[in-house]
Amino acid sequence: MQTRMCRVEMLATAVVHQIKLVRNEYPFCGPPLFKEPKKRSGYLQKQGGVQNNRGWRRRWVIFNGEDLRYYTDNKTCVSKKILPVSCMANVVNDIKMEDNRKYRFKVVTANRVYIFAADTLEENHLWSSTIMEAILKYKPPPDGIKDGGRMHSPDKEGFVKIDGIKNKCFMAIKKDVLCYYNNYEDFIPDCAINEIQMKLASVKELGQTKLQLSTHYSQFVFTFDNAQETQDWKIAIEDAIAEGLADDTVLKKVMVNSSNQWCADCRAPKPHWAAINLGIVLCKKCAGIHRELGSGISRVKSLRMDTKIWTPSLIGLIVAIGNENANNFWEFDMLSDMEIESDTTAQQRKHHIEEKYKHRKFCRLHPKNANKTALNQELLRVAETDDVLKTMQILFSGAEILYHRPGNDGETAFEIAKAAGQSLQMELLYQNGGDKIARLTDSPTFMEAKLRSTVRQQGFMYKTGSNRKDFLRRWCQLERGSLSYFLDDKTLNDAHGVDWTTTAKDSVGYDTMLSLFTTSTDKYANSFELSTTKPGNRLFLFATDFVEDRLSWLRSLAKCFCPIWMMDQMDNYDFSFCGYVYLKEGLTQEWYKSWMMLCGRMLYFTSELIEPDQLQEIDLRKVLHIRLQDTSTNHLCLEAGPCLVIDAGRSVYIQLDLQRDTEKLYAGIQLVSSSESHKLDDQQLTTNNIPVIVEKCITHIELHGITAEGVYRLAGTHSKITKLLELFRKDARALIIRNDDYTVHEVANCLKRYFRSLDDPLLTYDLYNQWIDKAALEDQATKIQWYQYLLNELPTVNKATLKKVIHHLVNVSQHEDENKMGINQLASIFGPALMKLDSSLPVSGQTGFGYTNREISLMVDMLKFHAQLFEMDKSELEKKQKLEKAMEKLKALSSTRPVSTVDSGFIMPVYVDSPQGDCITLQVTSTMKVEELVELAKEKKKLPGEWVLHECVCDGTLERPLNDQARVFSITQEWQDWDEEYRKGVCLCLKVSDLIQTMHSLYEFHAPLFGELRFSEKKAYKKYCFEFKQSKLTCYKDARAANKIGEWEVEKLSIFHGVERRRNPPTEFGFTFIVRGERIKKSRDMPYFGRSVACTTREEAVNWLAGLYKAQYPNGFHS
Ligand SMILES: [Zn+2]
Questions:
Q1: Alpha carbon distance 63, 796 (integer Å)
Q2: Which of 83, 90, 857, 969 has the fewest CB atoms within 10 Å, measured from its CB?
Q3: What is the CA(1085)–ligand 1 centre distance, in A?
Q4: What predicted TM-score, i.e. pTM, was given to this entire model?
Q5: 288: CA distance to ligand 1 center in Å?
Q6: CA–centroid distance, residue 161 to ligand 1 (Å)
Q7: Nearest-angstrom CA–CA distance, 60 and 41
Q8: Percent of the chain at pLDDT exceeding 70
Q9: What is the structure's pLDDT at 699?
């Protein structure tokens, strides 16, 4: 504000000097002429009250040469009053030397006097002279000042209550300006309270009689007398906003067709909306109804506001078709009593428009409309002519826009029009969804084709024929969105200026490109495949001499068919796959088309769920599971054939247009995600950036061997260690270390060997000398500072892994009494293992025992000072504490149940048939999955057939089938949140469940579930409405779904089949659920387990359970 004041004041001062100067030089020449009106602004005192009988207030006043406005302060943009010069009769100085406010001046208007006071005499003169000059200079319009001044004859006027103003105001809108006045008397001289420029405003309804107008600086709430008035004002305000934003350029061009000067439906004058797919111009009211028809019938755009979409060919189309030609078709059979007029009611208007366009009641159908094939073929025939009206008739008589003749290279009408250079035909077909590619990429305009044609590349590549064996050298040319190849570059040069398609051996248009894969062949390492929709879904195989050339071609080709916004980003990606896929995130979501790229171990894709023009990523190193699933059995997909499923926290389902491409992508992803590389960075990682192999070995040792004497010192069987490491390398995530297969020492040695087999040691070669140097430092504090510095120099994965290892070793050393492995022993093993490799040569030519000693002492330091060097963040600490607690509680649990902990894992009793049945005790490891436990149990008891593990509570009345892939340990961990009584009563039970058999037959159940069920949250059952959709279970008070009683995300629920008998359920059919992670209490207020839902029949209960379980286990209990 300060700068604003300064600038204005300097201006004012300059003006004053100028006045003096001019007046001195030309004293008799009348008032001087200034190009710019004089302006002033500053704080003045103003006397309040219409009669000037109230107190004085400090006001920020701006005089802009045309009007004087005053405000509460210089920060607000909402004025208290606007006094146009046209209403001012005089300015009178009124110096009152005896008063506090001596330097007054009065602005006199026709109906009121406004009194201001400046702080100094000079200020007073400046203000009064500036205003006086403007009054003298003011020239009224030749026909006199009319009522309302510039707001004379407004588009809308009336009284309104405005929030913050005591009395009702008079409000007027004209063009893009809204003004409100204290009363109608103030409107006559145009003395508004405030003026709002509508260009950047927006309006919304707040209930029936309120409107809220928002600008960037303030909000105004208007209250009207009734709903109708509110609607009328809303329309007027919207019109004013539109007026502010309007641009009449397009409108003028479209009016070249004079029939467009009246609405195509109601003949209202000055229409400024268009239905671009129909080629007609509409009034605002009719446009609103067209919009309700849906974009499949009418695509409404403003001719004045949506200016960006108006390409020359689209304008050309509206001119070529226009209202008269269109109505010759649409209203051919219409009787005059069906006509509507500009003041027809909304209901009649709607009826008319629906009859006309939706039901095609009056239109002049094409003679061939009875024969669909003939009509379709007629469309193809006319598409290459310039008769766009004929095309309109055929199209709206019901021809299929994407119809193509099989024999004619599958060209659609749009492609035929394109080849024939019929731009209006193309536009009409395009606007009605005729461009396959535009549909795919959702391109808004023909700009796409233009953009694609900016991609150019040429050069020699090697290309195989359809036998995909012999590579031939071909001159390749990528231009106009099409890849063509020629016998040689000479052919091309000879054909200069000639249409290439005649000389090219073949061309691949961007609209046929599906995906690109890098590959390598025996002959050429740098080859790639281009998958297309050309006949036979042809797969082209190209090769280049150099990898750089391949990348450059791949990028150029990708630019031809990637989403438009990706085009200029393609150069940033080095991909082994790119193309369009169908994608679904989570089972309950919808499929959508996505652009996907595989770059190294990162998978990028566009997500409609998040931000359609932003890439989402999946780090394939951190993916839990990648599988190719056959969809023929469970109809996961729209298309039959395999579906790629990536489990990365959530499941992502991917399917490509062609089965072969889905399989190729799967192979490509597998290749990069289970790399047998010896780089730390290339390993499968946990979410904490620790290689899965390291995590698994450490967890195994902590569970089974932390107290084993000589752990990490004693050797195991060499061949077994080699085997284990090999298995880890193949797929660490899939590997389960069984106690029966490997001793703790073998696992410990596997971990040591793993570190020694890396390409670069954990502490890295680069930093080796620095580590060794700093380890020799004597001052402990300095040393730790240096270590901290060096730790931060390590790559992320190295640092995270080192932290994990050190914490683990500290843990091992804390059991020294039993395992006899103290810090020194562990350091002498791990120092060299983390710093040097099996095959490593002496670093920097230096070797010797001293270095090994330093390596060891570095490791001793790290173990001793681990707390300072590797601070655990809060979440890690919490996690650790939680785990420790859980282990303790597990031990405690074992005393109340026939469970006993031994050094290696824990013993779990599993019952057969029911909690009263046979008991098998099994040894469970922390990583064991349900399916493994079931296999173990079946083996031990020689149980034939299919068994499902259940979690049983409340004497077995409540049972929950467990998914094969769930971890037994995490299931038992959840019991820690339960009250002791429930915890004592819970057990795992193997059952042959006929419920599951029944549910399998219902697994295709797709529709959302909704129904009235009896629900008991705490005690008594009451009728409520339940709904299950979009992975949420919602309970409503009534069927109108208005009052929400509760809502639960199904993923977070444990759902048990059955209802607790003690609750006195109205029926015995139903289910009980608890929210995982919530404390399951048993108290006087909550005497029963979880929340219970009772159904009327068994079928109903099974139906609900099938739906809920399906959401939880999309692939069934066995996968
Ligand atoms: Zn109309």
A1: 63
A2: 90
A3: 64
A4: 0.42
A5: 9
A6: 32
A7: 7
A8: 85
A9: 83
